[in-house]
Amino acid sequence: MGSFTPYGLVPTVFGSNVANNCNELPDSHTISVTIFMIIGTYLSYTPQLYKIYNRRSSEGISSYFILLGSLGAISNIFNYLILHYWIIDCCSAITGTSCIIKLLGMILVFVQSIQFLSVAFLFFVFFPPELKYKTIEQLEREQLEELEEHNHGQDVGDSARSCGLSPSLNFHTPAYQEARHVAYAILFFFALCAASTYIFNAATNAGMHSSVIRNFAKLLGFFSLLVTMTQFLPQIAKTLKSRHVGS
Q1: Transmembrane stretches, by residue range (predicted)?
Q2: Extents of the domains making up the chain
């Protein structure tokens, strides 16, 4: 039995830690630890997912926490998939049981990443409705400020209110606009990683084993490490500022 290091929260930055040997399998202790980590990782996110779903609200969660965590999760997926694609190749030459055992590290990374992305999904689905739109008072105040600015600071008085709200006003709150931008950024980053992986894979005869795509994967691993180190800072700052835990 060969040695095997279970992977999880830390991306592979410098390459695979496992020798590219299809016949090497981890010992029973390592298999047990990895399975325990998979179950533990899955269960660790379950209370958060349930709380958001049960409350039908993601109030209290920072958009930037979701952004950084999602970018890290996506980077982890592509990092591990590329650098350990040889394991998938091995599965055609070994038994099904051996294949599953060798894929445990990949399963662990995927479970952790998908669970966080599930939190991100619920964050957008259950974004608090009361925080999506500005109140009439806020919109009227913005319109008055806009008119006063247009009239070089002159007080436009109550007559401006009789004109109705300008269609140029943004009816969404800054918090909801921020959340939408975060969603677009996550989707763009996923598309960028997928497109880059496809292009690098097709560009050389070595495919997923080429140095170009492996260097790209290592770059994603380093990026994931950076965002993972900082992703909780926005959430801590928001909780301290609001003095409210929320979801």
Answers
A1: 28-45, 65-88, 100-127, 182-200, 212-233
A2: 28-127+177-242, 134-171
